[in-house]
Design goal:
Number of strands: 0
Helix content: over 70%
Distance between the termini: 49 Å
Strand content: under 5%
Structural class: mainly alpha
Radius of gyration: 18 Å
Shape: elongated
Number of helices: 10
Number of domains: 1
Order of helices and strands: HHHHHHHHHH
Oligomer: single chain
Largest sheet: none
């Protein structure tokens, strides 16, 4: 396992840091601006990018660019919702997304207000639809930014810490422990279980209260 994992990490690290960071930030921007996140979760993009991190400085720079990409994408999503939201909702793409998901996002925003914007960053589907819905609602952009910025910072920090921490632990153990690969996957799996467990709990809590 160590040989396979080392080869994977070498491929990721073989990409120049500036290019890896650029790819990650652009991909995250597209995630919410053109709904790519409905197909390729941003969590996966951040984890793969963070596996190549080799220093605290690089982790901070990666985090800053990912947050910038997320804010740019959500801002574009907000603008699209503001100027073309109803047309988009009733377009071919809007119908593919489904009236139920649009209604869910609208209800979520109406009932929770700003906290819905913050929490949506951590919820599947909603994190791509809420920026559009917020723009359609006429919600002030400054207030939208005030809620989504800290959410993006927290979200990126969690995933970078998990992936970079697992990769660093593996590098330290790889030469001396045959079980280093298992430790790497153990950290990733444990971290993701905590994150996704929190997402499921949050999703259940919000779904329950939206039905009330």
């Amino acid at each position: 396992m160590n040989d396979v994992l080392t080869a994977i990490l070498d491929v990721v690290q073989g990409v120049a840091p500036w290019l890896r960071i650029l790819i990650a930030s652009v991909a995250i921007m597209l995630e919410t601006s053109v709904l790519v996140g409905l197909i390729v979760p941003g969590d996966t993009i951040v984890i793969v990018s963070a596996m190549g991190v080799t220093s605290a400085v690089e982790a901070v720079i990666l985090g800053a660019f990912i947050v910038a990409g997320a804010i740019a994408g959500e801002s574009i999503g907000y603008a699209i919702g503001r100027w073309a939201g109803p047309r988009l909702e009733h377009s071919w793409l809007g119908r593919r997304i489904g009236a139920r998901n649009w209604a869910r996002a609208e209800t979520y925003l109406r009932r929770r207000g700003g906290i819905a914007i913050f929490l949506s960053r951590f919820l599947p589907v909603l994190h791509s639809l809420v920026p559009l819905t917020v723009g359609m609602s006429g919600y002030p952009y400054r207030k939208f930014l005030a809620w989504t910025l800290p959410a993006c910072v927290l979200w990126s920090t969690i995933y970078i810490a998990i992936a970079a921490g697992a990769a660093e632990t593996y590098r330290e153990l790889a030469d001396s422990a045959h079980w280093a690969g298992y430790a790497f996957f153990g950290i990733i799996v444990l971290g993701l279980l905590v994150v996704f467990g929190g997402k499921k709990l949050l999703h259940w809590f919000e779904h329950r209260h939206m039905k009330d």
